[in-house]
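user: At home tonight, take the chain set out below, taking as long as you need, and be ready to discuss the fold:
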Amino acid sequence: MELHADGPWPWDRRSRAPWSAEQVSLANLATLQKYYSQSGGLHTLQWMFGCELRSDGSKGGYMQFGYDGRDFLSLDKEHLRWTAADATAQLTKRKWEAEPAIAQGWKAYLEGECVEWLRRYLEYGKETLQRTEPPEVKVTHQKSSTENVETLVCQAHGFYPKEIEAAWTRDGENWEHGTFCNRVAPIPDGTYYISLYTDVEPEERGRYRCRVAHAGLSQPLALAWEGPAGNMWIILGAVTGALVLLLLVFAGIVMKKRRTSNSHTQQSREYHLSL
């Protein structure tokens, strides 16, 4: 709030904006009820807009309206046209396109003032919002419901920002057949998570790689499933550790026997004196 106090948008203007939006929305709801010949009941008007500042410096923006949970109207910013979702929305489309200044004004806002505010917010919170944290990636496998097929799973987590490129490749080429990818999802620590799946024949799993590119990585990763090799080292390590333990136990027994035989006479005398 302190950062905004001296900004170009005073607090009194900010306070008036929600009240004005409420009045306009109520009027729009009444209009839409007439358009759809509705006399009563509960109805909802949704209005969503925003701007984007991409990592390559390009800008994006969107504006769309929904009524009773369905799409109603959206702005085609590049062509300065409105897209109607149904016949009733055509009424508003024709009304707004009769006044080109409406679309032109919103295009100017989304590409101008909105982006400038976005840059300001990024500067205010740069320690958090502009940090980069690389993903931790691992490839595992699991049995598939289909006989003679298994599923490779690629999991990337702990990365920030949200934008990430993740895909399966086969012999170095993008592979989409039999693949599935979850949407990027947030996790409680403020970073993100994504997982990808692909069905493969077990004897061909070595041909597949999970390719991941992210701003936190100096170069993209291309990881294969290394379960067998990793398991073998674990097994060898466990066997070696067991052998070493057995040798230590055996050596301890031998040393104990020697100490026992050397001190047998003294121990017997001490036991006798204790009677």
